Amino acid sequence: xxxxxxPARGGAGGDLLLxxxxxxxxxxxxxxxxxxxxxxxxxEIHALVGENGAGKSTLIKILTGIxxxxxxxxxxxxxxxxxxxxxxxxxxxxxxxxxxELSLIHGMTVAQNxxxxxxxxxxxxxxxxxxxxxALAQAMIGKYGFDLKATDVIDTLPIAQRQTVEILKALSNQxxxxxxxxxxxxxxxxxxxRLFKIIRLLKxxxxxxxxxxxxxxxxxxxxxxxxxxxxxxxxxVLEGEAISPAGIIRLMIGRELTADxxxxxxxxxxxxxxxxxxxxxxxxxKLDGISFTLHRGEVLGFxxxxxxxxxxxxxxxxxxxPFDSGRIRYLGQPxxxxxxxxIAGGFGFVPEERRLQGIMGAISITGNIxxxxxxxxxxxxxVVDGAxxxxxxxxxxxxxxxxxADPDAPVGTLSGGNQQKVVVGKWLIxxxxxxxxxxxxxGIDIGAKEEMYQxxxxxxxxxxxxxxxxxxxxxxxxxSDRIIVLRKGRIIKEFTHGVVTEEEVLRAASGLVDGSVQ
Length: 518
Known about the structure:
Blueprint: E1 16-26, E2 31-41, E3 45-49, H1 56-63, E4 71-76, E5 79-80, H2 87-93, E6 95-98, H3 110-114, H4 130-144, H5 159-172, E7 177-181, H6 189-204, E8 208-212, H7 216-222, E9 225-230, E10 233-239, H8 245-253, E11 274-283, E12 287-295, E13 299-303, H9 310-318, E14 325-330, E15 333-334, H10 339-344, E16 347-350, H11 354-358, H12 365-370, H13 374-377, H14 386-400, H15 416-428, E17 434-438, H16 446-461, E18 465-469, H17 473-479, E19 482-487, E20 490-495, H18 502-509, E21 512-513, E22 516-517
Parallel strand pairs: 3-8, 3-9, 6-7, 7-8, 13-18, 13-19, 16-17, 17-18
Antiparallel strand pairs: 1-2, 1-4, 4-5, 9-10, 11-12, 11-14, 14-15, 19-20, 21-22
């Protein structure tokens, strides 16, 4: 039986716990939220959905005092929330957030984490009453029927039980509102079912749960109401029978999509030379038997939701992270990847986290271009030839129209689009055979996006094999000759011909394949 078939759908009456009106937020220019209304009833499960960049995280940060709003009014539990809100103040109001990255302290017990900073003390002494703390924690565990012991050390627990400790920690703070951000991204199906029962139990206790997820079947099963955001604006609030996975996806994307719209046509390039052959790649908890081939001049797109394994797969193929089993062949030869071998073999990688992993902001364009090209710049004694280094930097600047065109400019001072050009440019001056580009246009403006698309298309025409990983569905459907969709570390769908729509990709990524949930 689906969770949606269980009784008591709808919040506990119409009593509002939270009422947000006209919320605006911009970061020195870009408007992230625009006149957003958002309300929560006491004791309801309310899903907050939208594509990446829709404004979900910013709204939650405003509610929890992490970032201030520019305009709008917030009333929580009958109390007006000031603009200069704080995380501590939000916790005192009874707002708790459980993020994908849990905030528990390693080395401590379950009880110590639950009562951190509010430990019971021995009468008249500034000493923690450990026995009482453990008893209180065990009483909470027993009340909710969790499979835990107060004295368990956090490090020994699986992720699902650690998540349960986070929930207990929030309950110990008398939380009236619990916000869960992609809570099942690291859980098995069985663990997810357990979490759903806990969420229903919280609802029965009168606690309001905000559920943020890209997994439409979970949103459909759990939610009393659904708020859809798109491009920082409120699109719709759905309730009861109006909630459907396909309907939510259409609202997230912003329009009905049909197969005869002018999307990029899939192109079959499987008759070309195989550049990369991956067979049954496995990594515990990350990759589950992934196999695919990539051909000369092909742009292969990878789609999937948060936690689907896209980035983990690319890091394993490139040699950044190890994998447990499987086989890789590169340019027809068995390949045991390392970063050094990949660079030397004409295999480039543009990481998702540009600022953290792609550039060194304090050094010049020339220095950044030079890092993977030391072999091309070194003289007979292994010393870098400064003139050659400058020549390569100027080639990259010209190829990608980097602005300013000053080789000595620190990369950290460039716009996001020009930083990304530098990250890509350092590979284009090599004898490139294969390029992986993870989220090619995140944080860059429309003009720079178009230039990046043209660069990828030009590389394909030159015979370079390109893998594009993108959460931007129009981008993925525009660029790709073929699209592979990952879910929970395995391939759930491959689009190989004809026209593929954004809705089809998102439905597959959400687990809705051939009319059933996968």
